[in-house]
Amino acid sequence: MALAELKLAATQTRLTGMVMPEGLNDQRVDAMNRVITMGLPHKRDEYWKYTDPATLTQSTPETAALFHNDEGALFADIDRVKIVFVDGVFDADASDDLTCEGVEIGRLADVDGGWAADIYGTLEINGQLHVHRPLAALNTAFATDGVVIRATAKAAKPINIIYLHSDEASDVMLHNLVRVEEGAEVTLLETGPAAARFNKVLEVDVAKTGAFHHVRAQGRDHERRAVTHCFARIADESLFKSFTLTANGVLTRNECIIDMVGDDAVAHVAGACVGDGADFHHDDTVFITHDGLNGESRQVFKKVLRNGATGVFQGKILVKAGAQKTDGYQISQSLLLDDDSQFLAKPELEIYADDVACSHGSTSGAIDDDALFYLQSRGVPRKAATDLLTLAFLAEALDEIADDALADDLRDRLESWLGRRG
Amino acid sequence: MLEIKGLEVKLEEEDKQILKGVDLKIGAGEVHAIMGPNGSGKSTTSYVLSGKDGYEVTSGSATLDGVDLLDMEPEERAAAGLFLAFQYPVEIPGVGNMTFLRTAVNAQRKARGEEELSAGDFLKEVREKAKALKIDADMLKRPVNVGFSGGEKKRNEILQMAMLEPKMCVLDETDSGLDVDAMKLVAEGVNALRSEGRSFLVITHYQRLLDHIKPDVVHIMANGRIVKSGGPELALEVENNGYADILAEVA
Ligand SMILES: Nc1ncnc2c1ncn2[C@@H]1O[C@H](COP(=O)(O)OP(=O)(O)OP(=O)(O)O)[C@@H](O)[C@H]1O
Ligand SMILES: [Mg+2]
């Protein structure tokens, strides 16, 4: 069968029996039409060459065993507004009051007009311009809930969406919206495994001189699957920073699509990932469009892979005509702890302006034997030395987090993960 | 303290014999120097003692206080009290010098069943010892040896030695790349550590370091063997006449 027919059939099968939630009806119907037009992704699609989307698109998710451990909550010592979803269902008892100075916080399920309805799905549509992202449109059509945040000033606390997983067969779609008004600033934290299969979209609209910080930790259930999209549009002199730490999970595809529409805007996306085992597959797919003057973008992605794990990076910088003085930087690196693990990278630059500085690099390497011996010769046991060098490798990505307390928390967590394995 | 007997070593990857029967015995509290032409096997000896991969011991033994070194992992040798100041110290991006030092000190303490040094005590000790070696706070903060000048790297080796307080210190050309003042600092650092229970094996090409660190015994290594041993005057002879006479004499 031709690919198009194959995809249409699969898409129809998938949509059969899916129930569209109440509210935002026009946006949802439009989104479903986008899904049908594009078709759900297939491994023969160029954009899915390195990651087979079959388990993300099939009607019923693969189950994912729950992972129990005695680790405390991440960011526990940081004063934050906690919003808890258990298998995608809002848990009011476990959540804090949705109030915080400088921001308005609500739930997607309660959106009835207003700014949230106005932008719902619009940034996702923008993100479909160059490449099809049907799983994001599927989310816009069927997301059951999510958090909507509007920052009007500097938020007094970070907002932490905590995604808990308690059902081995949960199949969850959530859609979060963030609007940062002029001069406002907010930090969004996202933590937890979420579900057996998680499809999440985050749309972020940053007005001029606004700042958005995003720190995410996707842990740690071994069998979970996730596809996430972050669509951002950032205006003049605004700042967008996103960092993701990923551990475990059999399949993770994180897409980040940033439209730098204003002048003097800054966008940094970074990720650190530790993968262990032949069933680990992690994919970072990034698409940054420079459409303003003096824009600065950075992509810093580091992956540590062992025991047959696979890492993927697809990163693109598109500099539109007129986006002069763009400064674009992209680095993706993997540390392969054995010969069975692999890293597949596809860095791309597409530049239509003449006065720009863009650079990209991608490397795969092993632990430096000389450094390992040097550490051992000072009395550091081989395993501890390997962990130290592994953390050192990931450090460049963690350094992208602006807030030291958040970064330290993630660093400690990562250290203990490396120390304990599994 | 250290006893090397009939040590023969070849490269693991190729059939190349590098050490051809090294015999060396260093008593507690003694300072020995090894000199010898380039490529004679001095660094190889130090690497084999500390357990670097890539070498195969085909014959002979090396013991520290009667304990077989060659059977141990590098970190176990370190915990047993062996220290090698590298001829070419390794740069480790991403690992802070302080973190590195503290991890090393505490790993060795742990291996010996001692209590870990508290953060405060550790800091105080590092600062003191770094100051004596003119290593500034900035160098302590930077990643291990990254961007350090040749001389700074060598001083950093001595700082590690001072912090780890090993009983058998092997210094591989620690004097090369040092300016006159730094050489003095390093020598003072070494001399400050000299004690009855601590021995040194100083590998060098120059008499100058030995002016500051007075050796008890000087050995000449050539072609994978110790070919001659003597007092400090042997180093002077090398300085004045090179190796030709000595090598002709033992040939
Ligand atoms: N890994 C290796 N691969 C190939 N040759 C090696 C290796 N290690 C040592 N050798 C060789 O063994 C010999 C001894 O080297 P070694 O570094 O021990 O000499 P050295 O006495 O320390 O010399 P120098 O005074 O120049 O530092 C040299 O010929 C060197 O090229
Ligand atoms: Mg040498």
Describe what you observe in this structure.
The complex is a heterodimer of chains A (about 425) and B (about 250). By secondary structure, chain A is of the alpha/beta class. Chain A has one domain. In chain A, the strands form two sheets. In chain A, strands 2-1-6-8-10-12-14-16-18-20 form a ten-stranded mixed β-sheet, covered by helices on one side. A ten-stranded mixed β-sheet of chain A has the order 3-4-5-7-9-11-13-15-17-19. In chain A, helix 7 packs across helix 8 and helix 8 runs antiparallel to helix 9. In chain A, about 55% of the residues are buried. Chain B is an alpha/beta fold and about 250 residues long. Helix content of chain B is about 40%, strand content about 30%. In chain B, the strands form three sheets. Chain B has a six-stranded mixed β-sheet, with helices on both faces. A four-stranded antiparallel β-sheet of chain B has the order 2-1-4-5. In chain B, strand 1 and strand 2 form a beta hairpin. Chain B is globular. Chain B starts with a strand and ends with a helix. The model of chain B has no long low-confidence stretch (mean pLDDT about 90). Chains A and B meet through helix 7 and helix 8 of A and helix 2, strand 7 and helix 3 of B.
